[in-house]
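Fill in residues.
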């Protein structure tokens, strides 16, 4: 029944957008942040994912990110990533906004991807504007070829704002949207968690896909309890 309702919303939408989180990549073997086996249960964000942590101990921070990069660079897109790429190919999904710092949406074939929290494929200079693409995780402390300062992972850390141009793009897409699919996010990290409300406030619909309830569940028009790969697979079949 929920699948039928979700399919109806997807088919009727003129501008459908998706907001994804770590749950979409969980099926590719990438750990999520919260929950029983979540990264933030095993590691302390204030020691690894803040500008202060990097200033204090860049070796530790890079070691942790290099470990995450090695998992992510070796992972392959899941059924959920592939299904979302298919929805875009079919012309049904107009943009995909992700909190994920992996590149699995792109590797699955999604074209219009907005990375709210940055990307682990990018290292950027901590002093100048130099940015570089990482094919491999760095094995030693990476330095900027322009100014010799330390490079840092190209992600948004706790205590940092989202890049304004990226946030603006996401808001623009959602302001045009009459439906948004919220897939695999605990919806607790702001401002990402509130973005679907832009659609709701404009009279649009929210379809949530998550094995668990989230703070967005009460606002969702359809909330489907299940794994992203299974649910999106069923939705694609029913379209
Ligand atoms: P979380 O780890 O907070 O939440 C993952 C969500 O995925 C949970 O709600 C799970 O129930 C759900 N989930 C687990 N397996 C799933 C599956 N197979 N299919 C669908 N859903 C599944 O991850 P995010 O919400 O993405 O920030 O976290 C948001 C931000 O917090 C991250 O971007 C990161 C973190 O600190 C930065 O890196 C800046």
């Amino acid at each position: 029944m929920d699948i039928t309702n979700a399919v109806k919303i997807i088919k009727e939408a003129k501008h459908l957008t998706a907001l994804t989180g770590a749950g979409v990549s969980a099926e590719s073997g990438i750990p999520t942040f919260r929950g029983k086996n979540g990264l933030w249960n095993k590691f302390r964000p204030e020691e690894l994912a803040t500008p202060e942590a990097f200033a204090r101990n860049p070796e530790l921070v890079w070691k942790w990110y290099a470990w995450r990069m090695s998992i992510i660079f070796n992972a392959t897109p899941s059924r959920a990533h592939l299904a979302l790429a298919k929805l875009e190919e079919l012309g049904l999904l107009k943009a995909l906004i992700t909190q994920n710092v992996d590149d699995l949406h792109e590797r699955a074939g999604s074209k219009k991807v907005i990375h709210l929290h940055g990307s682990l494929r990018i290292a950027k200079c901590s002093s100048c504007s130099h940015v570089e693409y990482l094919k491999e995780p760095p094995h030693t402390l990476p330095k900027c070829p322009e100014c010799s300062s330390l490079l840092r992972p190209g992600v948004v850390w706790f205590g940092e704002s989202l890049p304004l141009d990226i946030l603006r793009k996401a808001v623009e897409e959602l302001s045009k949207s009459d439906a948004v699919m919220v897939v695999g996010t605990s919806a607790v990290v702001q401002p990402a968690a509130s973005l679907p409300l832009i659609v709701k406030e404009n009279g649009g619909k929210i379809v949530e896909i998550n094995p668990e309830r989230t703070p967005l569940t009460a606002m969702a028009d359809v909330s489907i309890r299940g794994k992203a790969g299974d649910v999106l697979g069923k939705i694609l079949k029913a379209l």
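The CA atoms of residues 178 and 203 lie 7 Å apart.
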